[in-house]
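Sequence only, no structure available. Ideas?
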Amino acid sequence: MESPYRELPPAYSSMSPNSPVPFYSETPNASERVLQTGHCQCIASDSSAANSQKFVYKSDNLEVRLHPPRWGSVLPAYGLDGIVEGTVTFRKSCTHVQEVSVSLQGVLTTAASQHASIAIPGIQKVTLLRQKVVLFAAPAGSTVTVSCEYSFAPHFPHYVEGGADPLPPSYTVFQPGVSTEISYQVRVDIVRKGMRRHEKLVIPVLYLPKSRPMLPPLEHIPRSVRVDSTRDARVSDVALEPTWPKGCNAAIQSAMKLPSIVFTTPKFKCFASGDTIPLALKIVCHGSPALAKLLSSNTHLCIVKRQKAWISLGRQVSVREHRLSHAKVYLADDSQEGTAYLRMELQAGEAGRECSWRVEGAVSVEHVIRLVIFPPEHVKDFPAYRCEVPVTLTTDQYGSLQNELLAMNGVPFPALGLSDPNRHLRTSHAL
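Reply:
I predicted one. Tokens follow.
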């Protein structure tokens, strides 16, 4: 049956050739939609639209329905401390049942292939989450025929099981010889007496918690820093140390008068992904005024994402790095002889797609600001300057939590930007 809303797109009003964009008519057409400005309303559970929003999984005896909204992900996705609401329905009577339970589980799996054992890789598993809710238990020594419906609502805890690290998001990364996956699943078990088949249904889910800075960000480096940065508590300085080339004579090192290089960053080093990080660099070389300007032009600043995986029971670390962005210089001041002052902006990756986290001794996602100053090409036996400043990136901006919870009626919105579309999971497909 053809949809009654299928109409032609809205027509444009007359527009002049000088108009940068076309004008739309003020009266909406039947094919257009008006967005609701108030809070979102949950659809009644008995409506057909509500059923289409549920994830339904079936086995021989079971039908499991999960109720999270379809955020656009293939799998059920949950936000920070999200509640996994659903129902278990028996499609037919199941005899000799001793127990019916639902478990929420999370496992970190690391597989590493060594040169001597390529065919049989070493696999290490760490339990991150293990919650079990018993929906039905028969009296001791007896069994029951079950044919009804049970509701369940376990929730994701804030921390990993038996640890102090926050529960990490669903995660998959492949490195040369090493693969790491953090997976979560809802498991329904039917325990039956005797030699009867123990039935289970495993449903993979995504846990994508949002994170936010605890303090508002520093929008720019204060101008007073150019004179004396120690007087401003909002910033911190890092004095760069020289790295001499190999084979450089020690006498040359002691005789050379080196410049003073200070890197200034915000003191609170937690930023929302996609935000702009203000930075400053001051190079002072009164003995050779031209050198300060030459070094400022050889400055390279970027933010790096570093993914680590510990293998061989923590004895080795596999590291993968990826540069997210390069800094832009928006003010270079060399008016004072022998001094170069640079103010820079560095974008913290793509908005909503970065988050720093770790599971101690197993896996981590870190972010660092990397500064490298190379010596001028024509100057021999001159050191380079390198510096790395660890920072923490969050998925969302400071102060956005309250508005989000009000808009979603208290349901935590998952950080969909952390979801990998190429994630390889052995899934049970929803109907």
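The helical segments are 48-52, 250-255, 289-297, 401-407.
Hope that gets you unstuck.
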